[in-house]
Amino acid sequence: MKTITSLINANKKVYVRMSSDEICKAFFAQAENEGFLFGGMKPTAKHPSDLIAVLSDKTLCYVGTIGRMAAGSGAENVCVIDAEEILF
In this predicted structure, what is the pLDDT of residue 1? Predict the structure, then answer.
């Protein structure tokens, strides 16, 4: 099992893809245990989403239209990982 913290890379945008609300909730719980915040709040207080951005300052964010385009671009400065690869 990887840690979410190990994904942080100052040279890449990191996005985590969720296959279900349950997986997202488990991801939020792990992120909270690792000291991440989501808009200044505990991640477990937020609603699940299918795609979450992981920032280098240990902040999580919802992903809007432009971020979704970036996540799907295949650019070399973008990393998209399935949450299951981190959790299991």
Answer: 65
Tell me how far apart the alpha carbons of residues 58 and 66 are, in angstroms, rounded to a whole number: 21
| DSSP three-state, residue 15 | strand
User: 45-78: per-residue pLDDT in tens?
Assistant: 999 999 999 999 999 999 999 999 999 998 889 9
CA dist 37 → 3, 17, 29, 54, 67 (Å): 15, 18, 11, 10, 19
Of the chain, the end-to-end C-alpha distance in Å amounts to 6
**From CA 75, how far away is CA 48, in angstroms rounded?**
26
3-state secondary structure of 43: helix
State the average pLDDT over residues 4-14. 90
Q: 16: closest CA among 52, 55, 68? A: 52
